[in-house]
Structure formats: structure tokens, C-alpha cells
Amino acid sequence: MASPIIICDTKGMSNDRWLECRAHGPKGDIEYTVGGSDVATIFGVSPWTTPLELWMIKKGRIKPSVKANALQLEMGHLLEPIAAHFYEVRSGNRVYDDTYMYQHADHPYALADFDRRFERASDGEPGILECKSTTYRHAGDWDDGAFPLYYELQLRFYLSVADVKIGAFSALWGNNPESDLATPEITRDMAKEDMIFEKLDEWIWSLRHDKPPTMAGIPSKLALESLARIYQASNPALPTVELPKKCEASLRRILSLQKDIDACQAELKRYEEEVKAHSVRIAELMKEHEHGVLETTSDKLLIDFVTKTSSRVSSSELKKNHPTIYEEVLRPSSTRKLKVSVQPR
């Protein structure tokens, strides 16, 4: 492979300008681009975005949605130098900045800029360092040298663009770098790399030939959230959609499940009412006490009857007494829930 092409220096660049360069190159002459954070989405393994949503953004048909976790993303950016520092301390490798944006020598659509570069202490071999931050809840993803697939795809893409043989992660999730830091490394794998770029070539073809991807294989929760972002609010002025015959099985199953849910909710309500009925006499005996016990020959039955107090804003009082403030803090909330019903012929 040939060395990558430097297309611009991002040092001091505004975020808006960086997004422009990232989308179409600094001269605006690249029709469609792929960056490292796009790769997992294109493979359908991103926890955050679907291939269809990314495709619509690349086509300019929708704008990227405002991230709900903007502060978390900002925190991750601020933690990058800390993660890089402790990777350097742990590994002994020299870590340094590289502010250039690069273009793949053989795949012009592939653009990348890197969190950090490093130089391996043992032999001077250059590498790419990806700095990540996570929570204790996801720390297990990094156990024993493991790393999430969606990050592996990103780093392997970077190794290809940079034409280097080694890469590493520095993943941070706490304030003790001895126990709350993972620094797994990967080596370039040409078979995996060929598979990645075969998929990316197909993706670029789909953009140029206006062939959008489907939601096949995408987790249902993420797929529905993504479709809500893509198509937003329903439009009552639009005509009724004629669905194809192949949808009947799914619609019949939804109808059946809706009935099961209604039955379960009715049964749950009956159970809750029975619990309340049995609770009346117990509550009379408990009076102001928070805890009770009934000892039997085989066990103890422990009773908790604790008052929990929570404070919440009364929207009706706020609207009545402070209508201006009420209007200022009012936030629209919309949902779309699919429901199937039957109309006999």
C-alpha cells in the first residue's frame, strides 16, 4: 500500500469546519466519505445509529440528530489526554499528537484523523492510539484484553488509512489508572481489512445508486428509535399506505401479542387489587411502624411499610400561578406506537 494523503490540518479548526472537511473533504470535492466512527454503523453493529439513518445523513436528506448525551461526549473528549497520558505511562511507548486529516491511498472516500499516534518503545514501530472513556457498567467489555467490536472496526479502518501495522486502545472508566484502565493492542489483519473495505465499497455504491439499506438485523429498539428520528412526526394529511401481502404474518403476530398484553395487564391489575385487599388488615396492625415480622416454624415473614416522600412540580398550579414560566419550561414530547386492529369485510 501507498502512504496516506494529507488533505488538511485540523489544528485550531472550528467544529463546523471540521464537519465540512469530514463530510466532503476540505475542497468539497469528495461526493461521499466514510470516517472511522461510521464503520460500525455501516456494519450494523453500532449501539447508537443505524445504517439507514447514516445513509440518509450522507445523502443530505436528514440532518444529524442532536445527541441526547452531548455532555457525556464532551466529557469523553476532555478525558482523551488523560487516557493518552496513562497509556504512555503503562506501555512505555511515546505518544504524540497528529492534527492532520488523512485520505486513504486506495479508497479516496476513506478519511481519518486520529486521537493520538504512538511509537513503540521496543522497536520504534508506529501505531495509532484510540482513547475511549466508559462507565463501570461497561468496564467488563474490556476484560482480559477484550474490546467492543464496534471499536475494533474503527481502529482497523484507521490502521488501513494510516498504513501502519499496530494499534492500541486506552479505555478509562474510573480514577485509578491501575485498575480502571484497559490498554489492549491489535495487529493489522489484511483479511479483516479486505472484508471491511469490501463492505465500505458496497456502501459507497449504495449511495451513488440511491439504494438505501434496510433495518434487517438491527435491534428493534434501536431501529424504532432511528426511524423516529428519520421520519419524525406523523402527517395526518398523507393517504393510507397499502402494505404488501408479505407483511400479513407480522401484522397478525402483532395483533395476537397486543391481545396477550391486554390480558396480562388485566391479570396484573387483578393481582394488584388482591394485594391491596390483603394489605388493609396488615396496615391497620402496623399503624405508624415501618417494619414488622411474623415468625413461623419454617421462616420469618418480614414486612416493610415505609413512607417515601418525593417532590414534584404541580403543572396545573404552575400554569395557573406562573403562566409565563410554564410556557418557557414547557417541552413538547411526542411518541409513535404501532397498533394493529381488525376490520371485518
Biggest sheet layout: 6 strands, mixed
Unreliable residue stretches? none
Overall average pLDDT: 93
How many strand units? 11
CATH topology of the largest domain: Lambda Exonuclease, Chain A
Shape descriptor reads extended
Written as H for each helix and E for each strand, in order along the chain, the element string is EHHHHEEEEEHEEEHHHEEHH
Describe this structure in words.
By secondary structure, the protein is of the alpha+beta class. It has two domains: 5-220, Lambda Exonuclease, Chain A (Alpha-Beta Complex), CATH 3.90.320; 243-289. It is extended. The chain contains ten helices and eleven strands. Strand 5 and strand 6 form a beta hairpin. The strands form three sheets. Strands 2, 5, 6, 7, 8 and 9 form a six-stranded mixed β-sheet that branches. A three-stranded antiparallel β-sheet has the order 1-3-4, covered by helices on one side. 42% of the residues lie in helices and 14% in strands. The chain starts with a strand and ends in a 16-residue tail after the last helix.
